[in-house]
Amino acid sequence: MAIWLTKDSKVIVQGMTGSEGSKHTRRMLAAGTNVVGGVNPRKAGQTVDFAGTELPVFASVADAMAQTGADVTVIFVPPQFTKGAVVEAIDAGIDLAVVITEGVPVHDTAAFWAYNVAKGERTRIIGPNCPGIASPGASNAGIIPADITGTGRIGLVSKSGTLTYQMMYELRDIGFSTCVGIGGDPIIGTTHIDALAAFEADPDTDAIVMIGEIGGDAEERAAEFIKANVTKPVVGYIAGFTAPPGKTMGHAGAIISGSAGTADAKKDALEAVGVKVGKTPTETAKLMREIMSAG
Which residues carry out catalysis? Predict the structure, then answer.
C-alpha cells in the first residue's frame, strides 16, 4: 500500500510534448508508472512514441480523464501557464495534481489554491516547485529518480527535492512506502501535516521521516499536529542550520525573519514533542535506522 499514488494510478502529463515533459514521461514509464496519455490542446489527436509505447495526446484534462480513466496529472508547463493548467485539472475533478514547475508566481499559486478550496478541495495538489511523489515499486509521478531506493515501510515528506533523494538513498536498504516532495515555495498545496496524517493512517507505513527547512512556521505547526495526532515514530531534519538571517537560501520560502523560522527553533519545537532531529541528513538516517532496527 502507499499514500495517494499506487500501482493502479492512471497518470496523464500536462505538457507531455515539451522537452521536460517528454523526458520525464519517458523516465516515469521506465519506472513502471501507468502513464496513459498527455495533454496539449495544439497537438490533440496525435500520439507520441516513447520507446515503443504510443501515448495519445488529448485536448484537455477532462478529455483525457473521460477516455483513459486518469486520476493523476503531472504538470510540466512553463510558469506563466501553470495557473491555467492547474485550474483546468481542478475543473476536471482529477484526484491528484502534481505541479513540478519552478518559478510559479506566488500570486498565481495563491489563486489556484483558493480556487481549489472554493471547489471543495476535490483535487489534491502537490507543489508547485516540487519533485513529485514516488511509491517505490509501484508508481512514480514527477522527477524523483526511481532507482535509488526500494519498497519498504518508511514514509518520507520533504520540502527539498535534493534532500528527498539523499534520504531515499541513505535508507535504500530499508525502503519506503511513499516519498512526497511537497516543494519549498511560500505557498504550496499539500503540507507536512497532510502527509503526516496520511502516513499515520497508512497500515503499511511504520515510521516517518520529515524534512523541513528554515523560514515560515510549517514545521512548528507540524510539531503541534504530531503531538496531538501521530502515534508512529517521526524523525526530522531541518535544512539551513548555517543560513544567515535575512537571506533567501535556495527556496523562495526559505528565509529567516527576525527570530522566527530558524533551524534551531524548528528543531526545538520538534524535539519538544518527541521527534528525534538530526543535525545532518546522514545523522537523521541513522536515527531512523535505529528506530526500524529496534522495531
Answer: 251
